[in-house]
Amino acid sequence: MSNKNFSKLIKAAAEKTNLSFEAIAKCKGFSGEYLRKAAHGERIPKDEIIIRMAGALGIDKNTLVAAAFSDKFPEAQRHFERIKNKKALPVYGHIVAGDPTMAIQESQAEYRVLSEQWDEHRYVLIVSGDSMHPEVKDGDMVLVENTPGGLDPKRCHMKICAVLLNGESTLKRVFIDKKRGQLTIQLKPDNPLMPAYTAKEEDEFQIQGIVLEIIKRRL
User: Fold this and answer.
1) Taking the CB of the first residue and of the last residue of the chain, which one, N or C, has fewer CB atoms within 10 A?
2) Model-level pTM greater than 0.85?
């Protein structure tokens, strides 16, 4: 059985390591000959071996599994075409869903997302704490969008946002209220055990981004 999508992925990833097939395979408990045959389109392994190969080669396991069956099942081919060209977004460390913590300024890593999720004004944050439980949990990665020049608070009403408050960052749901010309901004946790906070005039306050979706959850 041969599959060009699968063998091309295996071969390209193996070449990037500058290691022999034997050296790559050894760490995951399968033979170098098995990997060589996969790279040359001579064999499609069982699912369990495909996942181990993905780990050994640093390939996303879902991409490799979809590639393995893309010539046999139309749905697998469509899935492979959708995920093969993932694009990288910066990951800006942890943001606290709880008491504010010092804002993290530098990108810590990259996270690859589907092309339709990518935008130059988007980034990824890792959540710590449980003030946004149950919708957002400790360890979740959230996709955040900002716009040049900052965000209009009115656009953020009732949405989960990354907020900079007096030089410290936190993740909260933003509520906007305007009475008698006075704009009030309240930051509320989803967790009913956590207190809300109303922004004061003297606060240095900025909405850094709107959370669009949870893109990865630690199981």
Assistant:
1) C
2) no
